[in-house]
Amino acid sequence: MDKRDKIRLTQYSSGAGWACKLSPETLSQVLRSINNQSNKNTNYGFENFDDCSIYSLENGDEIIQSVDFFTPIVDDPYDFGRIAAANSLSDIYAMGGMPLFALNILAFPSDDLPNSVMEDILKGGMNITEKAGIPILGGHSIKDKEPKYGLVVTGKPQNGNLIKNSGAQTGDVLILTKPLGTGIITTAIKKGLASAEQLKEAVDVMSELNLKASKTMLDFEVNACTDVTGYGLLGHLSEMCSSSNLSAHLEFDKIKFLCGVFEYAQKNIVPGGSKRNLDYISNNINFNENLKDYQKLMLADAQTSGGLLISCPENRANELQEVLSWDLDAFIIGSITDKKESLIRVD
Questions:
Q1: Are the C-beta atoms of 39 and 122 separated by less than 8 Å?
Q2: Which of 21, 136, 167, 214 is deepest in the core (most CB within 10 A)?
Q3: Which residues does 210 contact at the CB level (< 8 Å), separation at least 6?
Q4: Cα dist. 27→32, 66, 183, 272 in Å?
Q5: What is the phi/psi pair of residue 142, to 5°?
Q6: What are phi and psi of 90, to 5 degrees?
Q7: CB atoms within 10 A of CB 220
Q8: For the segment 63-74, what is each residue's pLDDT rounded down to a tens digit?
Q9: Residues contacting 220, CB < 8 A, separation 6+
Q10: pLDDT single digits (tens) 168-219
Q11: The CATH number of domain 173-346, selected from 3.90.650.10, 3.40.50.150, 3.30.1300.10, 3.40.50.970
């Protein structure tokens, strides 16, 4: 038996994927003190809380830049590499961009794990970048007790058009292109509770590129988009609402979740990152009184390589959802409204 078969990669991690991300409260406190230092060429930087930074070249062309990496979210190193790479590319796709090339970021416990595990992680990342049609030009690695992997990705606008999270309009319909619950399911995986079917579904969802969704939404001239990752649906939607100076209405029963999420959430098998997300955002959310606490956590669940959250004009939303559903499990979850006292209303 290959030694790799006995390794549970998640046991070398204190968190799981995007659930290990710094809390939004901690990060906002730090960034608040430095958000006025962006370079003058940066048209759009981290202070705007969008998915990528946009940098203008001297000839007027623009490039978009993003970086993502995290700790193991599944035990299989090849799948971990695939998921981390798909997640890293997602920010580019969320802005309707075209990735050009990537660089590896790798931290690896070389004293504790065989080099074959590192090889599988990197092969998984390369599998995804090949599907995206881009090369990995190099990267950087360090020795670390906790494995970490991800990509720096450089891209460019397609047809000179970039979609930001700040362009939502009143009356827009909100469409999500992947089901929620990867944080909860991967917590169950880490605890050895998830079934083989639940593991496969989660891996399939997290390793799926947002490429098709990105290309499709460009054809429909949508108003805004973001990807749903570490801050959960509520966190990323709240950023869209704040940036657009509007509010949103969600219908819980329209939202799809991975198999097993309801059951695990009711048993409090929920990552700490999801709980921190809800604590941070809850004052800005108007929850229907019939919603249970575990349902609120499901909406705040820290996602890894989640779907695109698209704000589409109402007259094109049904057609966009139908076209997306040819290849993806896309569904309508709510709408954008005029500015209310709360950023988001959930019924």
A1: no
A2: 214
A3: 86, 89, 90, 93, 94, 177, 227, 307, 308
A4: 8, 17, 20, 16
A5: -135, 160
A6: -60, -35
A7: 17
A8: 999 999 999 999
A9: 312, 316, 319, 320, 323
A10: 999 999 999 999 999 999 999 888 899 999 999 999 999 999 999 999 999 9
A11: 3.90.650.10
Residue type, 292: K
Residues found in the chain: 347
At residue 191, the pLDDT reads 87
User: Are 307 and 177 a contacting pair, CB within 8 Å?
Assistant: yes
In 3D space, the residue among 110, 106, 70, 120 whose CA is nearest the CA of residue 90 turns out to be 70
Of 87, 83, 22, the residue nearest 228 (C-alpha): 87
Specify the residue for token string 């955002």.
281
Which two tokens mark 28? 């906002």
At the top level of CATH, which class does the domain 3-157 belong to? alpha beta
Q: Do 51 and 95 meet the contact criterion of CB atoms below 8 Å apart?
A: yes
Dmax over Cα atoms in the chain, in whole Å?
Answer: 60
Give domain limits for the chain. 3-157, 173-346
Q: What residues pair up with 344 in beta bridges, in sequence order?
A: 248, 285
From residue 56, give the alpha-carbon distance in Å to each of 37, 53, 64.
16, 10, 9
d(CA 48, CA 54): 11
Phi, psi of 108 (to 5 degrees): -145, 135
Residue 346: which H helix or E strand, with range? strand 344-346
Q: In this structure, what token pair is assigned to residue 104?
A: 């590896």
Q: Which two tokens stand for residue 114?
A: 């065989």
The residue among 199, 283, 97, 284 whose CA lies nearest residue 89 is 97
Using an 8 Å Cβ cutoff, are 40 and 52 in contact? no
- CA dist., res. 329 & res. 179, Å (int): 7
Tokens of 94: 């969320």
